[in-house]
Design goal:
Number of strands: 2
Largest sheet: 2 strands, antiparallel
Shape: flat
Strand content: under 5%
Oligomer: single chain
Length: about 250
């Protein structure tokens, strides 16, 4: 284990990234445990307030991101200061992304259906950082040979093609595939070749006069959502807690 850590993490200078990821995941887990205890009315925890203002944990998270980010820039990639900055940045990122949905909607949607976006963002971020730790390089540059790496035109062409695949996948409504495709180009290639999701920019523009393609896209999206929405929601509930049921509409 020690040899693997030295060879794959410490020598390539990835220790700060590992520390940032570990502190990020740990902060998210601890934060969710505390918020779920507060929600259940258990334990010594409570909401932080300043007068009548509820101080959300995204506020100290932003401050910690700023401190850790500038500390990392000033301290370089090696040394004790870099490790401390990485931990501070990871803690701040965990606090901020735990309330990503609040920032997105500018509303306290933490325990609503919209709040699931926070869990999705945390899982996506952790997965992407994990791929970087595993040795994947954005746009598949790590797949090039030594001769290709020395050829700037070849590198630029490879990056441009992979980026184009990711953009096509994004225009087809496959945001997750587009993001992962930046790290693993084969994923973006598959996403760019498959049918677009209904309502995506690609479908609106190119399927408008192709009723068969539009019908196939709707059918495929229906079967995909029916197959995976249940397991995905159960996984999100297990990680972040089940959202509150929607409030019934008041009759005037």
């Amino acid at each position: 284990m020690g040899h693997w850590l030295d060879r794959n993490i410490i020598e390539p200078g990835k220790l700060p990234l590992l520390l940032a990821l570990a502190s990020f995941v740990l902060t998210f887990v601890v934060t969710r445990v505390i918020t779920r205890l507060i929600r259940a009315g258990k334990g010594p925890f409570g909401n932080v307030t300043a007068g009548a203002v509820h101080i959300h944990h995204v506020v100290p998270g932003v401050i910690l991101i700023v401190i850790g980010g500038f500390g990392a820039v000033a301290g370089g990639r090696h040394g004790f200061g870099s490790a401390v900055s990485a931990v501070i940045f990871g803690i701040g990122a965990g606090l901020v992304l735990d309330e990503f949905a609040l920032v997105l909607h500018l509303d306290d949607v933490y325990w609503t259906e919209a709040g699931r976006k926070s869990v999705e963002m945390v899982v996506l971020t952790a997965a992407l950082v994990g791929l970087l730790l595993a040795g994947f390089t954005p746009f598949g540059v790590n797949d090039l040979s030594e001769d290709e790496l020395q050829n700037r035109a070849g590198v630029a062409g490879s990056v441009g093609v992979n980026f184009l695949f990711s953009l096509i996948a994004l225009s087809k409504g496959k945001a997750r595939i587009a993001v992962f495709g930046v790290i693993i180009p084969a994923v973006a290639l598959v996403g760019s070749l498959r049918l677009a999701r209904p309502g995506s920019p690609w479908a609106k523009r190119l399927y408008r006069r192709r009723p068969r393609a539009r019908a196939r896209a709707i059918l495929r999206a229906y079967h995909h959502d029916r197959r995976w929405s249940g397991p995905r929601r159960a996984f999100q509930d297990w990680i972040g807690g089940k959202p509150d049921p929607p409030r019934p509409l008041e009759r005037g």
